Amino acid sequence: MENVNVRDPREHVNEEPRDDLKDLMFGFGGMLGFMTVAYIIMVIVKYMMD
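RE: above sequence
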């Protein structure tokens, strides 16, 4: 008996195509920007406490 719920993954159509490299670059750039701003704020706070 054949299982009708099993489908060939090659027939799958990606409903929402994405550009993985662009997503990676935005994620890396966003995190780098956030960490840079956090670092600058911490340096300013350190010098204000001295």
